[in-house]
Amino acid sequence: MSGALTLRFITQSQIDLRRLTNELTDMQRQMSTQVVAHDLQSLGGASSRLLNAKAMMAQADSRNSVLGQLQARFGVQGAALGQVSEAATLLSQSIREAVSANDGRGIATELSLSFDSIVGALNETWNGQPMFAGERQGAGPVKISTLAELQTAVSTDDMFDEAARHQVVDAGTGAPIVMAAKASELSEELFNAMRDLQFLLGSEGIGQPITNAQQTALQAIADRLTAEASKFTNEEGRAGQLQKRFEAESVRLTERSDLIKKEIGEQVDADMGEVSMRLSALTLQYEASAKTFAELSKLSLLNYL
Fold first, then answer.
1. How far apart, in Å, are the Cα atoms of 36 and each of 23, 45, 46, 78, 278?
2. CA–CA separation, 216 vs 95, rounded Å?
3. Model confidence over 186-199: pLDDT tens digits?
């Protein structure tokens, strides 16, 4: 073998060894990190698709987080509305039972219990913000705390402290959604009915027996309370509908995020079976090339003299 030919073979063997060394290093990196490329540049044309997919996944996850908060919020809100409805219903039933038994001595106690329950529910907060005060922060919307204060409250402003605008949220599902009606919109007539009942009870209450005039007035107040309880039941149903709507949207976003994550994985995750086979093949090639290079390096003209 001529010296020039030997040199050409040695040079080619060196090139092959460098190439195989680089490929082995890359395969070993893939084996340890389980990803195809170590940076976006290594992905070539797929890098822009990968960036877009990651942005879409981040957006879906962010919206999903907001929807999770909204689901919890509407759960608490629905419970508060249900509490008001239950309190109004119980007071109405107590009045009817008292009229039926011709004994009104327990009405005052039921009124006090229902009033406290209703005020507490309407002043319920979520993350420090009152749920039925519109868009403002701070104290609850119902200013009155006793039946005596209710009797002297003659206007809406005397009873409620609310923002001018409703609290709304844009969950990315279309038009902004009103979170809840304000306390004055929901409960002013309910408080009016309780005020009338408190005036009817007077300072001494209603005893036994109940007069015909008192029975008529009590029945009318009971009817008003039942109607107001139905209003809160409807609002509770609306909160439940929104909660389920957000739940369904959350499921859709989770599925979308999982699909995008899978597609990203197909772009960047290494096929460990394929990597292992490729690593074994490259190792054999490297060993063969190294052996050939070593043998060629020992050759000289004296071997052929």
1. 12, 14, 12, 49, 13
2. 11
3. 999 999 999 999 99
Q: So what's the pLDDT on residue 301?
A: 43
Q: Quote the CA–CA distance of 130 and 135 in Å, as a whole number.
A: 9
The CATH architecture one would assign to domain 49-263 is Up-down Bundle (1.20)
Indicate if the alpha-carbon torsion angle 7, 11, 12, 14 is positive or negative. positive
Domains in the chain: boundaries = 49-263, 270-305
Tell me how far CA of residue 208 lies from CA of 85, 105, 215, 295, in angstroms: 28, 7, 11, 120
- Please classify residue 188 by burial: count the beta carbons closer than 10 Å to its beta carbon, then call 0-12 exposed, 13-18 middle and 19+ buried: middle
Which element (helix H / strand E) includes 146?
none
The type of residue at 61 is D
Biggest distance spanned by C-alpha atoms of the chain: 140
- The C-alpha atoms of residue 129 and residue 219 are separated, in whole angstroms, by 37
Alpha-carbon 76 to chain mean position = 13
Distance of alpha carbon 80 from alpha carbon 193, whole angstroms:
20
What number of CA atoms fall less than 13 Å from residue 224's CA on the CB side? Answer: 17
Whether 209 and 102 have beta carbons less than 8 Å apart is answered as: yes
- The CA radius of gyration of the chain, in Å to the nearest whole number, is 39
For the stretch 162-186, pLDDT in tens is 999 998 887 666 678 888 999 999 9
Selection from 142, 153, 150 nearest residue 184 by Cα = 142
